[in-house]
Design brief:
The complex is a heterodimer of chains A (281) and B (369).
Chain A lengths: L18 H6 L2 E12 L2 E12 L3 E5 L6 H8 L7 E6 L2 E2 L5 H7 L1 E3 L12 H9 L7 H5 L3 H21 L14 H13 L5 E5 L7 H16 L3 E5 L3 H7 L2 E6 L2 E6 L1 H6 L1 H7 L8
Parallel strand pairs in A: 3-8, 3-9, 6-7, 7-8
Antiparallel strand pairs in A: 1-2, 1-4, 4-5, 9-10
Chain B lengths: L1 H20 L2 H17 L3 H4 L12 H24 L8 H15 L11 H23 L5 H20 L32 H22 L2 H11 L1 H6 L4 H27 L9 H14 L4 H17 L4 E2 L2 E2 L4 H15 L11 H13 L2
Antiparallel strand pairs in B: 1-2
Helix pairs in contact in B: 4-8, 4-11, 4-12, 4-13, 5-6, 5-7, 5-11, 6-11, 9-11, 12-13
The chains are: A alpha/beta (281), B mainly alpha (369).
The structure holds adenosine-5'-diphosphate and magnesium ion.
């Protein structure tokens, strides 16, 4: 909370379209000069950016740029070699993964990681359980708390499945869902944890243009409910249409940051994407 | 071969489907009939009409008691292996802890001579087994997969070896005169006697029903969802807010508690406990029974535990070409397992299928989804 004044990278230019979000400027997530090495590989090199409440930030870059690694560092899978990450003013390092989720950070995975032998409904219920307190004793004897939380979780799960458009599939095992349905289910499961920040790792990978458009609609709706969104994507066009700001990574380094239009015209970004078609999939 | 299997499979699925489509009262009636059947089973007046089911080479009532203990153990191990996906190779070690707790605290041959009554020691045995589960789990459940298998294997062997060689646990000589459960008939004769195994079987059967209700309550709650999510993808579970370590420990402790109860029941019936009761093979048999029945399914565990324990006893007293089949029981057992792994790796009764699931599917069909 204290050192939020150092926000040099955000161009506070006159006439910026996202005036409203920029003017509020409440930092939600601060990635503070993070370096992360895997042996000799430097997956993140002094990456530094801030995510503000209520915005949709795009994190883009060619394959292998370090986007997923950045998510993994944020959600406690990897510890940064140097630097630190603060979420809602608190340091992430040293926190357990489920604690980070409880603080309000939820994510999806680039390679879908559902619970395949659980139904769609149960998958989402697991997310809803993040804030439940039913203990072994309460479940064993079906105490009032069990009934209350079970009903609450079930209703929430059905509502979210409805929201992402797969409620009619709720009793199907996750592994039997189509690829697109699985991607939607991952989003519903993440939303069930009541996130303040939702991190989506290439949620549109493998989608056709029509499906991508539907997904963008969904992401906007999520943002409109007050959830901040961090979106990884390497399809530039997709990102342009939905994000308020964009951070560009290449070989683990941040090479640009700014409004979509600025980033698109940035020569370094164009160079990074040259030879890498927009839709590498 | 495959057509036969197909038939068996579709037949079994039809049974499952009919079960889930049946009205609630029909299911309750069938369930009640099944329970009545199993309570009636150890009576000679009843089982003499059951053709080849009674065991020729062993007292059928005694066999039923053994089978019921295995069923209880399979239900407990199924929590650990089937639901939480933790490979426990030394589950019988917890059974031994339960049995020895009873032996040490009740038997006159024990060094400490507390001579407490059986009923008082049962909760203690369960608690102590749970504690041993937590003590074993705390350092190991932070690790993944293979370590747990090794450590649990070591644990069971450690218990067995201390039972064999420690003076306190009496080795081969064992503990005798372990008291039976309390209870008397009107004429003063004890309900739980030496010759008749039926009361013990009824006691275990009753406890199995209670334990199954408890396990079902757990699996249909946040706790069970946490266990299954850990089995399915531990990393994803953590990232969805599941405190995985805590719930793995609970799975371990719950499984251990059930094994401790089984051990206490065994000691109370057997009257005598020594180090030969706890061979490693038993752990393997129960694990195989759980996998055979369909791990992660309570009915599967019951059927698996029951069938495996029963089949082993069924071989007793059968001679074929002058060899006693019982001698080769584990060979057959192994063969059955290999065949299962080839044709039905998911076990006899694999996945949980919910009534709602079928109902909703029907609706979908009607709506024309
Ligand atoms: N666990 C790991 N061990 C070693 N190298 C890794 C690991 N995870 C990622 N990397 C490396 O870090 C770099 C960034 O990968 P990643 O974050 O997945 O890229 P992106 O998501 O932008 O495509 C790649 O060179 C990748 O090989
Ligand atoms: Mg990636």
């Amino acid at each position: 909370m204290s050192d939020t004044e150092q926000t040099p990278a955000v161009p506070a230019q006159a006439g910026a379209p996202a005036v409203e979000t920029v003017s509020r400027r409440e930092p939600l997530l601060e990635v503070d000069h993070v370096t992360l090495r895997f042996g000799g590989v430097v997956a993140l090199n002094d990456v530094d950016f801030t995510l503000y409440k209520g915005e949709i930030l795009g994190l883009i870059g060619p394959n292998g740029a370090g986007k997923t690694t950045c998510f993994n560092a944020m959600t406690g899978i990897y510890q940064p070699t140097e630097g630190q990450i603060r979420f809602r003013g608190q340091k992430i390092s040293g926190k357990k993964r489920h604690q980070i989720t409880k603080m309000g950070m939820a994510r999806t995975f680039q390679n879908i990681r559902l619970f395949p032998e659980m139904t769609a409904l149960e998958n989402v219920q697991v997310g809803a359980d993040a804030h439940h307190k039913t203990s072994v004793i309460a479940a064993l004897f079906r105490l009032p708390r069990y009934w209350r939380e079970e009903r609450e979780g079930r209703e929430k799960a059905e509502r979210l499945l409805e929201f992402v458009g797969i409620r009619h599939r709720m009793h199907e095992f996750a592994r039997n869902l189509s690829y697109g349905e699985q991607r939607r289910l991952e989003i519903a499961r993440a939303l069930a944890t009541d996130p303040v920040l939702l991190c989506l790792d290439e949620p549109a990978a493998g989608f056709n243009p029509a499906e991508k458009e539907e997904l963008l609609q969904l992401i906007r709706q999520i943002r409109d409910t007050g959830i901040t969104v961090l979106l990884i994507e390497h399809d530039m066009r997709l990102v342009m249409g939905v994000t308020d700001r964009i951070v560009v990574l290449e070989f683990g380094k941040k090479i640009a940051e700014g409004l979509p239009a600025e980033v698109r015209d940035n020569p370094r970004v164009i160079a990074a994407y040259l030879g890498v078609p927009d839709d590498a999939a | 071969m495959t057509t036969v299997l197909e038939k068996v499979r579709s037949g079994r699925e039809a049974v499952g489907e009919r079960w889930h489509h049946a009205p609630r009262w029909v299911r309750w009636v069938l369930l009640a009939a099944m329970i009545v059947f199993f309570y009636a089973l150890p009576n000679r007046e009843f089982y003499q009409y059951l053709g080849p089911i009674p065991t020729p080479g062993a007292n059928f009532t005694q066999v039923l008691f053994t089978v019921s203990i295995y069923v209880l153990l399979a239900v407990g191990l199924n929590i650990v292996v089937g639901f939480a996906g933790l490979l426990d190779l030394g589950y019988f070690g917890f059974f031994a802890v339960g049995a020895y707790t009873v032996a040490v605290l009740t038997s006159p041959s024990s060094n400490i001579k507390t001579l407490w009554p059986w009923l008082l020691v049962v909760p203690l045995a369960i608690a102590l087994t749970m504690v041993s589960g937590v003590m074993l789990g705390t350092p190991t459940l932070r690790l993944r997969g293979d370590y747990l298998a090794l450590v649990t294997l070591g644990f069971a062997e450690m218990i067995r070896i201390s039972a064999t060689s420690s003076a306190f646990l009496k080795g081969q000589r064992g503990f005798n005169q372990i008291p039976h459960p309390p209870g008397k008939y009107a004429d003063g004769k004890p309900f739980f006697g030496v010759l008749d195994a039926r009361p013990y079987y009824w006691l275990v059967l009753t406890l199995i029903i209670l334990v199954v209700i408890g396990v079902r309550n757990l699996t249909h709650s946040r706790v069970g969802r946490a266990w299954i999510s850990i089995r399915e993808d531990e990393d994803a579970a953590q990232l969805m807010g599941v405190p995985t370590f805590k719930f793995k420990l609970w799975a371990f402790a719950s499984g251990a508690a059930i094994a401790g109860l089984a051990g206490a029941l065994f000691a109370g019936k057997q009257n005598f406990v020594n180090s030969q009761n706890f061979e490693l093979l038993n752990s393997i048999i129960i694990l195989a029974a759980v996998i055979f029945g369909g791990s992660g399914n309570i009915v599967g565990a019951i059927v698996g535990g029951g069938l495996v324990a029963y089949m082993i006893e069924r071989f007793r007293g059968i001679e074929l070409f002058g060899v006693e089949l019982y001698e080769y029981r584990f060979l057959f057992f192994g063969l059955v397992l290999v065949v299962m792994m080839i044709f039905r790796p998911q076990g006899l009764i694999p996945n949980r299928r919910r009534a709602a699931e079928f109902k909703d599917r029907r609706k979908e069909v009607i709506v024309g989804e």
